[in-house]
Design a protein that fits this description.
Shape: globular
CATH superfamily of the largest domain: NAD(P)-binding Rossmann-like Domain
CATH topology of the largest domain: Rossmann fold
Order of helices and strands: HEEEEHEHEHHEHEHEEHEHEHHHHH
Distance between the termini: 54 Å
CATH architecture of the largest domain: 3-Layer(aba) Sandwich
Strand content: 5-15%
Bound molecules: nicotinamide-adenine-dinucleotide
Structural class: alpha/beta
Number of helices: 14
Number of domains: 2
């Protein structure tokens, strides 16, 4: 179970969840929208065989909140959102299922823009786009977001390495990568090209074989990846993998990867900090995908060169956060959350000011 990041009561009230049940197509889904006042919500559509609806909703809420932090720190004018679909991505997808999901998006009328996430692909986005306008990450747009997310992680990793090791040279450095999916595999490619020694794990043996063959990686069973002696641990699977019980098992000095919400509890960040393990906050370092997806909304559409230039925001933010964390001896996660809270307050104040201005203008129009 993932933790919801600490939020005030008012902010919590601003997070709403839309439930979608469509027995005809078998669609059971939820869409979490974080504070609409931050802007239209953006966030991927995740498909997993959740145990029950409650588990799916809890994950949607935590991920929507994390999306808000990510969008605020990336300087993007959107609120956080997340859709979760209950089902097995290998067997339960159908045109009828995605048509029902598309109808739900249309009912939200632009309050939420979806995209790919774990368990969904650009082909799924193409299918959803047949029935809805509010879809990013189609094959004709940004497409597979994994490689751009991986590039952002790679660039953020270099910043984190300079802070932790005084050098960003990967030559001969061991990186343990958990998960070889849309982000993990291209990340391995970038790391291997820079000379890193890779230790990898995945639940899917075929993916492990591919990484061993392509990058000369050493494979370990999924349950052993946290115990691998390595300079860096890069979680690229699913959230909640590092809890208080796992901190003592880690044999790395830096945790930096794509996984959303990899820490199982807020206290875990403090435990990592006390052990001298630097944690690069997930919602800072994995923003490449959403930077790419939202680029589709720019006039003229998606431009990969512009996205690569915009990934610099990850390096700048992370550098500032890690510098402040070191200066104040705080866990970087805490510093990043506080910065996002300040940005959130400023965005909401600006929105309130704008609305007050509009009301005054409307009043003036009516001669009040
Ligand atoms: P994916 O589904 O394509 O890949 C995840 C991989 O992890 C799969 O190969 C799966 O078999 C493996 N896996 C699952 N549990 C595992 C375990 N216990 N041990 C080892 N391997 C395991 O997902 P993805 O798109 O690569 O995303 C990975 C993480 O990064 C997720 O948390 C996702 O939310 C986050 N993320 C992804 C993007 C993106 O652009 N795809 C962007 C930002 C964040």
């Amino acid at each position: 179970m993932l933790h919801a990041r600490s939020v005030s009561e008012t902010e919590e009230a601003a997070l709403t969840v839309e439930r979608i049940d469509d027995p005809a197509s078998g669609l059971e889904a939820a869409i979490a929208l974080d504070s609409p006042r931050l802007g239209p919500a953006v966030g991927g559509c995740r498909m997993r065989p959740y145990r029950d609806v409650a588990e799916a909703v809890a994950e949607a809420r935590a991920l929507a909140r994390a999306m808000s932090l990510k969008l605020l720190l990336a300087g993007l004018p959107f609120g956080g959102g997340k859709a979760v679909v209950r089902g097995d991505p290998r067997t339960d997808k159908s045109p009828a299922l995605w048509a029902a999901f598309a109808r739900a998006l249309e009912r939200l009328a632009g309050r939420y823009w979806t995209g790919e996430d774990s368990g969904t692909t650009p082909a799924d986005m193409d299918e959803i786009a047949r029935g809805s306008r509010y879809v990013l990450g189609r094959s004709t747009g940004a497409g597979d977001l994994g490689p751009m997310t991986a590039l952002g992680v790679r660039r953020g990793l270099a910043v984190a390495m300079r802070h932790r090791f005084g050098s960003d040279r990967l030559d001969g450095v061991t990186v343990a990568v958990q998960g070889l999916g849309a982000v993990g595999m291209p990340l391995c490619e970038l790391l291997a090209a820079a000379g890193a020694r890779l230790v990898v794990s995945d639940l899917d043996p075929a993916r492990v074989v591919r990484a061993v063959e392509r990058f000369g990686a050493r494979a370990v069973p999924p349950e052993a990846i946290l115990d691998v002696p390595a300079e860096i641990f890069a979680p690229c699977a699913l959230g909640g993998v590092i809890g208080p019980g796992e901190v003592g098992r880690l044999r790395c000095a830096l945790v930096a990867g794509a996984t959303n919400n990899p820490l199982a509890t807020p206290a875990t960040a403090l435990l990592l900090h006390r052990r001298g393990i630097l944690f690069a906050p997930d919602f800072v370092i994995n923003a490449g995908g959403v930077i790419a997806a939202t680029d589709e909304l720019e006039p003229g559409g998606y431009d990969a060169d512009r996205v690569r230039a915009r990934l610099a925001v990850i390096e700048e933010r992370l550098d500032a956060i890690l510098s402040e964390a070191r200066a104040r001896d705080l866990p970087p996660l805490r510093v990043a959350e506080r910065l996002a809270e300040r940005l959130r307050a400023a965005r909401l104040a600006a929105a309130t000011g704008r609305r007050a201005g509009e009301r005054a203008l409307n009043g003036a129009d009516r001669g009040c």
